[in-house]
Structures are given as C-alpha cells and as structure tokens.
Model the fold of this input.
Amino acid sequence: MFHLAKGLYNNWNRKEVYSILILGLDNAGKTTFLETLKKNYSLHSKDLDKIVPTVGQNVAQVPMSKSCTLKFWDVGGQENLRAMWPEYYPQCHGIIFVVDSTDRSRIGECNEVLQTVMMDEDVEGVPVLMLANKQDRPDAMEVQDIKQIFNQMAERLSARDSRVLPLSALTGEGVREAAEWLLIRLQRNKTNRPPQYR
Ligand code: G3D
Done:
C-alpha cells in the first residue's frame, strides 16, 4: 500500500523537462535572449540562480508550470562552435534560431546555416522557432521580409511546427511569446520526442 501511494505521489509530482537549443550566428543576440528570459521568469523560480555559464555554453532551466520545465542551451554561434551543434541534436526537443534583423550582410549566411541544421536527420520533426531579433532598432528588417527569406526552405520546415516571431531580446519584447509558442509545440510533439521526467 505504501509503495502504491508513493508511486502515485511520485507520478503526480513528476515534471516534464524539454531541452531547447538556442542557435544562430555569433552576435545575433542569443546570450541576451537567455539573460532576458531568466529575468522574465525569475519571479517564479529559484532555479534561475543556478545558471552556470561555461565556455561556449550557457544553460538555463525555466519552470513554465508546476509540471513542466524548459531547459535552454545556448551553445555559441562562432564558426568553430557550430561544428559541435550536431552533438546536441539527438537530445533536443526544440530549436530556437536567433537572427540579427539588422545584419543584412549575413542574412544569406543565416539561411545557409539554418538549412544545414534542418537537413540533419537528428532534428527531424523538431519544432523550430526563428526569432527576428533587434526589432527595437530602426534599421531592423521587417519580420515579413525575414519570413520570405526563410520561405526558401519551406519544404524542410513543412514537416514540423515552425514560425518566425519578432523579438527584442534587449527590451524583452517577444520573449514570453517565444517561450509560450514553443511550450505548446513541444507538448504537441511529445509522442515523437518524449520529454525527460524528473
Ligand atoms: P550572441 O550571444 O548571439 O553572440 P549577444 O549575441 O547576446 O552577445 O548580443 C550581441 C550584441 O547584440 C550585444 O551588443 C547585445 O547587446 C546586442 N543585442 C542583443 N539583442 C539585442 C536587441 O534585441 N536589440 C538591440 N538593440 N541589441 C541587441 P554589444 O554592444 O554588447 O556587443
């Protein structure tokens, strides 16, 4: 009887944990996004103090509800670090791809890098959220224009949930919307990529 009660108790209290990779070119605003995300959810969590910055990798656990935590991995965007991204693919449940909307000269590179990510079979079916960052800047490209650029890979994206959302990681505008959009898609994709439980 004790074991049954304990089992039920553990089942009620177990948390779903989803891992999300934050990718993008260097200088796109990945670290700023993660920092703002931490601040946005800091009222609800003590875990956020435990964020451990390491060389080329920042990790933050954001509790979205009593039963669900999102674990964000910012693994660095410099060319030499990009080679390590595929090591994270088998364990990730979702991908955030941050784009610097003011950097027109690198938008082509962004597109190529994202295409390479999408072609990897280890991320098949994984929801992808592209964030058009730095929307607070007057020289930022419109989200609509960024969408058109990424439409070129529509075929790759169509077999999964994907979206382009506006963001200012600096002011925090769009940060919660991004986390909430992902949460719904991760839970929807649960049978394909089951979360970890703890
Ligand atoms: P990364 O982690 O992708 O390499 P960072 O990028 O988060 O380090 O950000 C790179 C630069 O872009 C930083 O400026 C940061 O303040 C700026 N930045 C990030 N997000 C935004 C945003 O939404 N709006 C604006 N205006 N700037 C942003 P510095 O000057 O520190 O290099």
